[in-house]
């Protein structure tokens, strides 16, 4: 039998029903609602620049890394500015693109250095699209700045 890489809310609920024996069991809808609210609260705290500790696994936070020189070849495209340029100059459509020129890369990072759990090098964290978009809005609007992490490539 294959071990799943990703677990869904339904998988967590099955585990909860199987292993929780104290008190009444929550129905799936209530369980999902609590989990959603908790995840939303954690993502808001991370976007505020705070560190969220996941017991036994590590810490989640926004990490700001300086780009390497070779990274400047493939800077991400600023689609809003590119589309505006294409409307003003239609002859450049598909030929020229406006790229972000920020010297830093931002991402939500799972720091497992202090974890005492086995096999943490096999853990992967990927934020959902909404959280990444909220992070992008904060960075573009320069609402807050995040601390610089150590580049360990």
Task: Tell me what the structure shows.
With 153 residues, this protein is of the alpha+beta class. It has two domains: 25-61 and 108-147, no CATH class; 68-102, no CATH class. 35% of the residues lie in helices and 13% in strands. The protein has four helices and three strands, in the order H-H-E-E-H-E-H. It has a three-stranded antiparallel β-sheet with strand order 1-2-3. A hairpin with a 3-residue loop joins strand 1 and strand 2. The chain is elongated. The model has no long low-confidence stretch (mean pLDDT 84).
Based on the model shown, name its key terms.
3 strands; three-stranded antiparallel β-sheet; alpha+beta; 2 domains; single chain; 153 residues
Summarize the structure.
The protein is α+β, with helices and mostly antiparallel strands and 153 residues long.
Strand content: 5-15%
Structural class: alpha+beta
Largest sheet: 3 strands, antiparallel
Strand order within the widest sheet? 1-2-3
Kindly provide the radius of gyration, computed on alpha-carbon positions and rounded to a whole number of angstroms.
Answer: 20 Å
Number of domains: 2
> Care to count the β-strands?
3
Query: Overall mean pLDDT score?
Result: 84
